[in-house]
Amino acid sequence: MGLTKSKIERNLRRVRENIRAACERAGRDADKVSLVAVTKAVGAEAIGWLVDLGVSDLGENRVQQLVARSGELADRLARRRSPAPTVRWHMIGHLQRNKVKAALDCAEMIHSVDSLRLAEEISERAEKVGRTVRVLLQVNCSHEAQKSGVAVGAATHMGQLVTTLPNVRLAGLMTMAQITDDPEAARPAFVRFRELFDEMRNEKIGGDDFQHLSMGMSQDYAVAVEEGATLVRVGSALFEQ
């Protein structure tokens, strides 16, 4: 039968309930956690259904898909007679410097800044179009060689350097835990990540802009919320049939 709007609605209800329950366990306000729906596995129709259900934040891993999906959704929403809902696109995957311009045409936040050279390119491109872009510093908290991100020990210094750039705002940190069937296996990395975030905030790095912890995906987002995530990046849990 395939994916339907009712199935997405069911999945979304379950994800939101899991976030609410995780916040309750951790003594947190569920309104402080935003769901970023990762749309790489579905088409424009399913994305439109999700937006209709009240999801405003959408994420893509690849620039080419980000450009295509954001354009398709914009066209779909523009054909409606009613006012279009607010949609914010997030670039959550590895970003090459030669694709920064295309990413900035669509994305409001870049989650995956993993080098000073990339941050400099974003700032330079943003200046040319009169923008200031919110970025997150990607940190490799799982210590996996195949994953992007600065080392935990280098994050504070890198964050300080990023905040000197005129057209970016360091809005927080992003990480990916080790992929595993056991969500609890991700907890140590999330705990250390939250400690790093608190250390950097205590040092006033990023100032008032430094607010977000982007961590947690479909397999471990509830644990991430318990450990302080403000942005969770969920895809397959929303679109499973």
Task: Provide the descriptors you would attach to this structure in a database record.
241 residues; alpha/beta; TIM Barrel; 8-stranded parallel sheet; 9 helices; 8 strands
Notes on the protein architecture:
- The protein is an alpha/beta fold.
- It has a single domain, classed as Alpha-Beta Barrel (TIM Barrel).
- Helix content is 42%, strand content 17%.
- It is built from 9 helices and 8 strands.
- The protein has helices spanning 5-26, 44-52, 63-78, 100-104, 116-128, 152-162, 187-202, 221-226, 236-239; strands at 34-38, 57-60, 88-91, 107-113, 133-138, 168-174, 212-214, 231-234.
- An 8-stranded parallel sheet has the order 7-6-5-4-3-2-1-8.
- Strand 1 (34-38), helix 2 (44-52) and strand 2 form a beta-alpha-beta unit.
- Helix 2 (44-52) crosses helix 3 (63-78) and helix 6 (152-162) runs parallel beside helix 7 (187-202).
- The longest helix is centred in the first third of the chain and has 22 residues, at 5-26.
- The protein is globular and about 50 Å long.
